[in-house]
Design a protein that fits this description.
Helix content is 9%, strand content 44%. The protein is mainly beta. Strand 2 and strand 3 form a beta hairpin.
Amino acid sequence: MNARRTLIWLSITASIASLPPSAGGAEPDNPLAFKPADGGGYAFDTGVLRGMLRQDGKSRALSNVVHLPTGIRLDGSVGIAGHYRVFTANRRYGTAAWDWPSTAELLPDGSVQTTWPEASDRPFEMTAHYRWAAPQVLDVVTTVAARENLSGFESFFASYLNEAFPTPYAWARSEEPRTQSHFLRGDKNYGDWLMFISPGDPRADVIQDGRWLLDPHPVKWTVLPRLDAPLCLRRNENPKLAVLVMAPREDCFTVAMPHEGESHYSLYLSLFGRNVKAGETATARARLIVAGDVSDEQALELYDRYLKSLGERRT
């Protein structure tokens, strides 16, 4: 490991490790607090990342995101760490959650909670809680409260990045020439739209129930039963910068992406993948990290640190 990479790595890990489970109060000088902004949105400037949450009051998550040390714009299209398609068995709820009516509240610790109330065509309430855990680390907790039985509930968690991040990777397992795990590049030879599932995970069956063939914008996925853990990333090579998206295994059942160079430049997590009975509440967690010149091994360590903070382990 060269000296520059070591310094970057120590800075990232120290900032994550030094924070308590809550990011602290929303005092004006708290760099990890969202601040109310014009148009119903919330501004942030963590010292590493600057941008908006809910620009113009729409629930499209992070937009106008700039990595301050490099000046690189991170987001593209409809933003980072947003809630896109929502399904139950063979049913899709509108086009996207970011089009549903929603409200937002700035909480005392400087975090923001978005709420999508139930509706006549949507028998559940969904919330998303956004909190900066460190200057380059965003935690998102999604909760669904069911009014009716929800079969195979899924929230498709989407991050659309700038074209500066053309190459996607998933933490995958290979069997040849021997069983090993590594970051597998989303090569076009695999297909146009790639979905990674864990071998033997029964939740993956829901992707075959017809939900992805529903309008608008049906998708035919190339399904790769290689996922070793819900961890994926995209890289920029000059300067070296990576955006990682991750979740604990119990909360996420697929990782998806288009092939390298495809113009959406996106990463997706399929959250929940379970039945939620009427009157029940279910929660899924996810984390986004923007890291500098980190190796594959360091990216995996960041994932393990996330799991450790949740009291969980990768294996």
